[in-house]
Amino acid sequence: MTDAGDDFGGLPAASSQFEASTREATRLAGALSGGQLNWRPDPGRWSIGECLMHLAVSSDAALPAIDRAIAYARQRAWPAAAPYHYGWFTHWMVRSMEPPPTRRMRTFRIFTPPSTPLGRDEVLRALAASRERLLDRARAAAGVNIKRAIVVSPVSRLFRMPLGGYLAFLAAHDRRHLWQAHQVEQASGFGQG
C-alpha cells in the first residue's frame, strides 16, 4: 500500500519496506552458519551479518533526529497536507541508495557494524528490533506534515531532509544493503570451508 499523494508512497510505503526488510533478512540469514554469516567475499567488503547489522546500527543512530523532527512538527501543529512533492536533493539522495549501487559510499563511523564475529540470532534480533523502532516512528508521524518536518542528520547538521524523504531514504538504504547481502551469498567461495 502506498500514498499516491507522496512522491515516495508516504508512510505506508516506508512501513511496508521496513516490515519486508525483517522478513527478507530472516529468509537470507535464518539458516546460515556462523562462518557463512561472517564470510567476506573480499577483505574490503562486508559479510551478510555486517550488511544486516549496519542496517540496525545506522537507523538506530538516526532515531533521535527523527524524533526531534516529529516533535517539532507536532509542537508547531503542522498537520498532514498531501500531496507531498520533494525537491531535487531529496530525490537524488533516495535514488543514490537504490540498488544496484552505481558508486561505492564510505560509511560514517557511527553507522559501522561491529568488527567482531556476529551471531545469527543476535543480528536478526537487532535488525527486527530496529525495524520495529522505525515502524513506531512511522506510526508516530501519522497526521504530521512529513514534508515540513525536517530531519537533521546525526553526522552533519548541513545534511537535512524532509521526514517523508528521510524515511524513503532509509527504505531505499534497506533495499541497497539487502541487495548487497544477496551479492555476498552469490559470490564465488561462499559457503565453502
Structure description:
With 193 residues, the chain is mainly α. The protein has one domain (10-186): dinb family like domain (Four Helix Bundle (Hemerythrin (Met), subunit A), Up-down Bundle), CATH 1.20.120.450. The chain has six helices and two strands, in the order H-H-H-H-H-E-E-H. The protein has a two-stranded antiparallel ribbon.
CATH topology: Four Helix Bundle (Hemerythrin (Met), subunit A)
Beta-strand residue percentage: under 5%
Uncertain stretches of 5 or more adjacent residues? none
N-end to C-end Cα span: 43 Å
CATH superfamily: dinb family like domain
What is the top-level CATH class?
Answer: Mainly Alpha
Mean pLDDT: 94
Q: Number of DSSP strands?
A: 2
Q: Which CATH architecture?
A: Up-down Bundle
Count structural domains.
Answer: 1
The succession of helices and strands, N to C, reads HHHHHEEH
Q: Helix amount, in percent?
A: 55-70%
Write the layout of secondary structure elements.
Elements: H1 10-29, H2 34-38, H3 48-75, H4 88-97, H5 120-140, E1 150-152, E2 160-162, H6 163-186
Comma- or semicolon-separated keywords:
Four Helix Bundle (Hemerythrin (Met), subunit A), mainly alpha, single chain, 2 strands, two-stranded antiparallel ribbon, 193 residues
Structure summary:
The protein is mainly alpha-helical and 193 residues long. It has a single domain (10-186), classed as dinb family like domain (Four Helix Bundle (Hemerythrin (Met), subunit A)), CATH 1.20.120.
